[in-house]
Amino acid sequence: MTLSSLENLFEHLLQDMYFAENKITKALPKMVGKATNEDLRAGFEQHLEETKDQIKKLEKVFELTGLEQAREECEAIEGLLEEGEELMEEAEKGAVLDSALIAAAQKVEHYEIASYGALCNMAKKLGFTEAADLLHEILEQEKATDEKLTSVCDGIEDSAMEQAA
Asked: What is the crossing angle of helices 129-164 and 38-65, to 10°?
């Protein structure tokens, strides 16, 4: 697709996030299985359900805008998830692994926050008001997930310091 208009760019980025969210639904169960902290595990399980809902919202955005519901391969999310896989393999089980999982998850969240922020703005400019509202809902979910990860982070990192001692 040639990105010759804001609508072309919006469609491309929307397809990019559709791909990303579908990939994330495959990564989160692995993270649930690796997490040793109960709060972290529960947070990943909750975010998996939210991500499935976000996919439905993206499908509704495609419907509302009349744009092609397709997945545009997202190299950024592929790289972030691959890096997360490597961290899971290399980190020692326990608090260090949980800290690695948080770091990997927050990198993904920050990418999603940036992407949905841009999509929200573009949707508004293009007059896709309902779509913008749905994208904003997803954006707020991603921000909330990032905040939850930050809130469990300190205690886990304190444990990781003790684990190393």
From this structure: 160
